[in-house]
Structure formats: structure tokens, C-alpha cells
Design goal:
By secondary structure, this protein is an alpha/beta fold. The chain has six helices and ten strands. The radius of gyration is 25 Å and the shape is globular.
């Protein structure tokens, strides 16, 4: 079963650490050689962002990997998600199965049974249904100890508090999944065009739901899309099968014109 944790004020009195600003070093124009320039650029970006660009990522389902830079959840980064419980649980499934503890904050209607059905390991899931007005402080505190934290904000956060939380995420190597807008997100995922499978001409059983997920990131020149079953017929996450276009029958007149040829008698 998942652990239900109720935080009180004594856990959130500790102020969030101030973000350390790093001055961007100058002198890029004087670097010699393309290899040296690329290495210096990478080193500068790593110092400014506070993480290695080639650092390993937390695994996600193969159907979701193309939607994320690096093919997984990058430690120290935040991601914007739609208010879709299925999308959130689908992203939490693989990290929890791989041994990462996951926390979900501010979602009192999230069900443990639904989470387990989509592959989340309940033995590594912490639920904080009602963090109160200080949801951001609770989120920062949970990010100190859990590698993956999901939150549904209950109000707007000040820019300074968001920057301090971002610094803490980088320092601890935690991943933040936000149901809603969030500044400087690694990727923004949106969901659309849902269709249900299994319903015939007014009757049948719902066997799965296919959705189109769109992901945009500052690391990509344009958005990426993937058609995903959330859930499929077995209740799991999977890539939606490609539908074959039906073969159109040729009209009699068109068939005659296409295949007309000269005939003659022999002998």
C-alpha cells in the first residue's frame, strides 16, 4: 500500500536555500578549435544550469520516452503536465519500479488502485493529499528526500520562491512534475484528441483510450507528438497502433478506363 503522509508546520519552517548565481565566463571568441569551443560551451552550460548535460535520466515507459529530452526525466528539472491523472501516473510508473521514491502533493482524489493499475509501485509512493496554503514549502521539503515529486499547485508562487525551489532541485537532483504552468520547464506536455476503443454501433465495452501527447521543449526546434494508449485493453500504457487506411474500391467506369486495351482475333 502507498504511504499517506500528513505534513505539519514544523516540517516546513526551514527556509529554502538561496539560489547561487554563477556569472557566465567571457572569452568564448578567443577559444581555439571547434572541439575546444564545444567543450567550453558545455562546461559553461553545466555550471549555469547546475547539472551535467549528459547525466543519466530516470527511465520512463518507451511510449513516452520520445516526448522527453534525453528519453527520460532529467534530475534537477521541472516538467509541465496537463491535469491528467493518467499522464502523471504513466510517468511515475517506471521510476518507482526502478527503485525511486515518488511523492504526490495536493491531489486528494488520486487513487492508489488507479496508480497500481498503471504500473506505479505503491511501496515507493508517498501521498500528501492536502498540503495547505504552504504547498510550495511542502514541495521543497519533500524534494529534499524524494527523487521524484509531483504537485498540483493550489495558488500562484512568487518568482523568488520558484527560483529557490529550482536551485534546490538542482542541488538534490530531484525531478518536479507540475500539473499546470511552470517557468523554465524542461518540457511541456499537453494531451488532446482522446478516442475510446471497444464501442461499436451504440454498444460494446470500453477496452482502451488513445490520446495524442504533444511535447515542446527549449531543446527542440519544434514540438513532438506521440499517440499513446492511456490505458490500453490490459489497463497499462502502450503505444497506440497505427491505423491502416481502408482500400477504396474503384468505380466500374474508372476501372474500365484504367485497364482498357486493344484486342484482336488470332488464327
Amino acid at each position: 500500500m502507498g504511504a499517506i503522509v500528513q505534513l505539519t508546520a514544523q516540517y516546513v519552517h526551514e527556509p529554502v536555500e538561496q539560489e547561487q548565481t554563477v556569472a557566465e565566463p567571457a572569452g568564448l571568441a578567443s577559444t581555439g578549435g571547434s572541439t575546444g569551443t564545444v567543450a567550453r560551451l558545455r562546461a559553461q552550460l553545466e555550471r549555469v544550469q547546475g547539472r551535467r548535460l549528459d547525466a543519466p535520466v530516470l527511465p520512463v515507459h518507451p511510449a513516452l520516452a520520445p516526448l522527453l529530452p534525453g528519453g527520460g526525466l532529467r534530475p534537477g528539472s521541472a516538467y509541465c503536465l496537463p491535469r491528467s491523472t493518467s499522464v502523471l501516473l504513466a510517468l511515475l510508473a517506471q521510476p518507482s519500479q526502478a527503485g525511486s521514491w515518488c511523492g504526490v502533493i495536493g491531489m486528494p482524489r488520486l487513487g492508489a488502485e488507479a496508480a497500481e493499475g498503471l504500473g506505479v509501485d505503491l511501496s515507493r509512493l508517498v501521498l500528501i493529499p492536502d498540503p495547505g496554503a504552504r504547498w510550495l514549502a511542502v514541495t521543497a521539503t519533500v524534494a529534499e528526500v524524494l527523487p521524484v515529486v509531483a504537485v498540483r499547485p493550489s495558488g500562484r508562487a512568487a518568482d523568488g520562491e520558484v527560483s529557490r525551489l529550482a536551485a534546490r532541485l538542482r542541488d538534490r537532483g530531484a525531478v518536479l512534475l507540475v500539473q499546470g504552468p511552470w517557468p523554465q520547464a524542461e518540457a511541456v506536455i499537453e494531451v488532446g484528441t482522446p478516442t475510446w476503443e471497444g464501442v461499436g454501433r451504440g454498444h460494446g465495452y470500453l477496452s482502451g483510450r488513445a490520446v495524442t501527447l504533444t511535447s515542446s521543449s527549449r531543446r527542440w526546434p519544434r514540438s513532438r507528438r506521440a499517440r499513446v494508449m492511456l490505458p490500453d485493453a490490459s489497463g497499462q500504457v502502450s503505444a497506440a497502433p497505427e491505423r491502416m487506411r481502408p482500400v477504396e474500391r474503384l468505380h466500374a467506369a474508372a476501372a474500365t478506363e484504367s485497364y482498357a486495351f486493344e484486342t484482336r482475333a488470332v488464327g
